[in-house]
C-alpha cells in the first residue's frame, strides 16, 4: 500500500480529502488549533471506533464528546438532529468548536447537517467508513436529513474542513454493502473518468472481496479517482446550479426506487438500476449508442449489482420522481450520457419515452427501439 494521497476540493472554502490507511493521527491537523470542543457523531455499530477517535482527540488536548445515533437512514431524522443539538448545547459548544462524523453516508449527512445548523455553522470533519460515504456522501458539502415525504429534502450546503478516508475501515464491511458502494465509483467512471471503468472491469473478482480490495492499490486508485471527479465538479459548482447535476447520474430513478421501497434498498443498488434506466432513456432518445448501454449492464452485473426493478411500480416511481430536487415545476430532468464521459441533461422527456425506458429495466425487460415509439 502506498502512502496516503490527498485530493484538494477547491472553491470558496478549500479542503483536503486524505485517502490511505490508519489515518487517525491526521484528524487534529484537519480540525485546526482554534477548536476546543469536538462532538463525535457515530452509529452504535461503530462505538469501538468512536472510542478510539475520542481517546485520540483527548490525548491531543481536545474536550471530546460522543453522540451515538441509530444506524443507517434511521439516523437522518429531525429527532436525531435535535438530540445532537441538545448535546452541543449542554456541552457549551461555540462557533470555534467542531463536529466529527464517523460512519457511513447517513451518519456523515447527519453530522454535516448538525454542524451546518448549530450557531449557523461550525466546522465539520468527516471520517467516512464505507465506500459510498468516501466517494459520495462525505465529500462535496451537501448535508441533509429525510422526511416522510422524501429523502434529503431538508438540508444545507456546508463544506467540511476535511475528510479522512481510511481504507482499513472497509475490511469489516459486508460484501453486499461494499459492492453497493462501488456503484458510485462506476458512476464517476461513466460521467467523467473512463479509466475508472477500465480498472473496475479488469479487477472484478478483487472488488467483490472487501478484505482483499481494502488492502489493494486498485481500490486506492479507484477511490482517489472517484473523489477527484467529485472534487472537480463541486469545486466549480457547490450549490448545484448547473455542472454539479452530473453527479446525480442514475439518482432521479434511483431515489424513486428508494422512496417506493421505503429505503429498504441500498442506495448503490438503487443507483445501479437508475443508471441503466438513464442509459436506456438516452438510447431511446437517440443520444446514446447500444455499446455504452450494454457496458452499463455488463460492468454492474459483473460486480453483482441489480440492473432491473419490478414491473408493477411505474406510477409510484413517477410520483416519486416528480418530487425530485432536480425537477422544475412539472418538468422532469434527467442527467443522461451522449457517450462515456459526455454527460448532458434531458428535460421534460415525453411520457411514452419514460415508460419505454422503464420497460427496459422492468423484470423480464424487452428491448425496444426508438422507431417503435
Q: What's this, in brief?
A:
The protein is of the alpha/beta class and 373 residues long. The protein has helices spanning 27-31, 47-59, 78-90, 105-117, 131-137, 175-191, 194-202, 204-207, 210-214, 217-236, 251-260, 267-284, 290-303, 314-322, 351-361; strands at residues 5-9, 15-20, 37-43, 63-69, 98-103, 123-128, 142-147, 150-157, 162-166, 333-339, 342-347. The protein is globular.
Q: Would you kindly provide a written description of the structure presented here, covering whatever features stand out?
A:
- This protein has two domains: 5-187, 3-Layer(aba) Sandwich (Rossmann fold); 249-373, Up-down Bundle (Dehydroquinate synthase-like, alpha domain).
- Helix 3 packs across helix 4, helix 5 (131-137) runs parallel beside helix 10 (217-236) and helix 11 (251-260) crosses helix 14 (314-322).
- The chain has 15 helices and eleven strands.
- It is of the alpha/beta class and 373 residues long.
- The longest helix has 20 residues, at 217-236.
- It has helices at 27-31, 47-59, 78-90, 105-117, 131-137, 175-191, 194-202, 204-207, 210-214, 217-236, 251-260, 267-284, 290-303, 314-322, 351-361; strands at 5-9, 15-20, 37-43, 63-69, 98-103, 123-128, 142-147, 150-157, 162-166, 333-339, 342-347.
